[in-house]
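User: I'm writing a short report section on ligand binding and want a predicted complex to refer to. Could you take this sequence and iron/sulfur cluster and write out the structure as tokens? A short remark afterwards would be nice.
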Amino acid sequence: MHFPWCLSKCPYCDFVSYAASFDAQGYLDLVLRELTVRARGFDDRCCSTVFFGGGTPSLWSPWCFGAVLAAIREYVPTTKDLEVTVEANPTSMDAVRASELRDQGVTRISLGVQSLDAGRLRFLGRLHDPNGARRALDASLASGLRVSADLMFGLAGQTPDQAVAEVVALDDLGLLHLSCYQLTVEAGTPFGQLARRGHLPQADDALVAESFLAIDDALTGRGFAHYEISNYARPGEEARHNLGYWHGHDYLGLGCAAVGCLTEGNPARGGRYRNPLEPDKYAVAVGRLELGEELSDLEQLDATTLLRERIMLGLRLSEGIDLVASALQLGTEPWPAGRAAQVERLLRRGRLERVGARLRIPRDAWLWTDDTAASLF
Ligand code: SF4
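Assistant: Sure. The structure tokens for the complex follow:
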């Protein structure tokens, strides 16, 4: 479920988020109405994870999460150990809020720390400082929730040692999961405009690559598994929701700007929908859905396309992908013209390795993951 509001807009952000006031009850009503329409005929499916992303969902009233979860349980079969994650920012997370979320059925917090350095947080336009980040992390951990932190590395002027010091400091606080991302400068954001004019301090590519590998060394040396290109977890603490995306599971999307992808049959076919990006247009769309109209933003997916997506996402995982089993499951050809030869070429170059039935990317070649995956399309 997407919650599209934040306290302010960060200059690098191209997520759908608005620095505006919102009506908590009104938004809840819309999401519940959408759920009752979209979950029709879901008796043969099972929901194992729920993710409230944004935006800054931790700004929403805690009882709203409980109401959404109760409705999901009413309309969709769910597993007993439902993983329920809420994205939060340090400015809207303290001991009271963490325990309220826990009491509403939330099991996991993903906290947008981004950095523990005051200068880098200012550069990123974040509203919190290092102490605020630490306080929010401590409060989340003390509530007994599973806690993950997002961290950005490869910022201009940051050395690999400094990047490592930040992940080590986060591990010392007792985190069980870390997502480490490189800053991406997107056109259409204030950072994108600055970069176009040559006014945005640029990171050195070689240092960014060195930081990626240094973080990997530090965290795996401390017992974390580098289970996905940007994600580290202590054993058993992987984000089950995100693993669902990387394994190609279906997902229902609810809320303004939410994306859902549902498939069926063999050969598989499916559709990926995206709800309108503006809250007022989303409200109109929910009314149209209730009248039985299909929204226009629907992408049809066939089995060949779904397998390409599985390759792209599966190769992000350290376990890689069993391409033949995935193709069989989707009812499509694993080896269309040229793919087998391409795999052999990538194996020879060390960009891929074969482990049993799986293909995966060796650690030293993770920096080329996107290119490797694209060359197998
Ligand atoms: S807090 Fe997150 S979603 Fe909100 S503007 Fe900043 S980066 Fe975007």
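A remark for your report: The CA atoms of residues 10 and 126 lie 6 Å apart. The domain at 304-374 is CATH 1.10.10 (Arc Repressor Mutant, subunit A).
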